[in-house]
Amino acid sequence: MKITVGIGEYAGPSSSPEELAEQAVQVESMGFDTVWLPQIFGVDALSIFAYLATRAERMRLGTAVIPIQPRHPVVMAQQALTVQAISSGRLRLGIGLSHKPVIETMMGISFEKPYKQMSEYLSVLVSLVEKGNCSFRGEFYSVNASVAVPGASPFPILVAALGKKMLQLAGRMAAGTITWMTGRKAIETHVSPTIRSAAADAGRQEPEIVVGLPVSLTDDIDEAKQRAARVLAVYPTLPSYKAMLEIEGASSAADILVCGDEKAIESTLRSYFEAGATEIMAVPLAVGATKEDKIESVSRTIEYLASLLPS
Q1: What is d(CA 109, CA 126) in angstroms, rounded to the nearest whole number?
Q2: How many Cβ atoms from other residues are within 10 Å of residue 237's Cβ?
Q3: CA separation for the pair 216, 237 (Å, rounded)
């Protein structure tokens, strides 16, 4: 089982850049291949990774995920290639569309034609990353540019895709997808067959299917589920996640939470690989009454997940 770890946001109390770096270094010391960092309302993921790359010596650095609308694809390419150079080739760039309430209401940016925008964005970004130049004219982007970052090399680009068209786009143009709030049934019946078929039709290699899941090793399942339902309450209200929950027959983030004892967690994670996941991005969900309790909860969960890594 390929298990990697997501830090930040839900993995315990709010963390400063230095604390996040310390968490990532600890994760590396426990043998994990990749650490993932979200780009939501806190730190800037690529900035953290530019710093972390000088401290973590081996671990790959994944963004899960950066919304595309606030960053022009040329800017994204420059930032990402810079991190790739600093980290000696360890970046995994996850990008996504975010959601209409965030992009339009909070940022004041249009959310019209998201599929079209992502398609054009990938056309520009992939060209800049793989060839160093791009000549493209579309509805959203008109680009005639080159980017040269000494020491940088191409890196995998993964698209947060849940709908059929987006999964097909990811299969055709990207290295794979990263999911969140998506259960086993949705992976098996929708995500995996759709993206794999699109990749095969395009003559591309087998796509990565990175399945992000909240995880909590605990003997108080009720407490864990109540916390998941509370801190992840926004997701069932967002159309793309709601659709995945409906496939699962679920109504709450608590239904996606992987929790319980060691045997229960291992069995559930294995079922996702059987359903088509190529990697589990485990995001420890902190439980407990105090900050210290939450920190201990996260440490306990990560230590157990490390025990599942191949020796």
Answers
A1: 23
A2: 10
A3: 23
Residue ranges making up the domain that contains 62: 3-307
Residue/partner pairs of 285-290 with CB below 8 Å, 24 or more apart: 285/10, 285/11, 285/214, 285/215, 285/216, 285/224, 285/227, 285/228, 285/231, 285/257, 285/259, 286/10, 286/11, 286/12, 286/13, 286/216, 286/227, 287/216, 287/218, 287/220, 287/223, 287/224, 287/227
Question: What pLDDT does 236 receive?
Answer: 94
pTM of the predicted model, to two decimals? 0.97
Q: What is the CATH number of the domain that holds 160?
A: 3.20.20.30
- How high does pLDDT run on average in the chain? 95
φ, ψ of residue 219 to 5 degrees: the values are -100, 5
Domains: count for the chain: 1
The tens digit of pLDDT for each residue in 91-132 reads 999 999 999 999 999 999 999 999 999 999 999 999 999 999
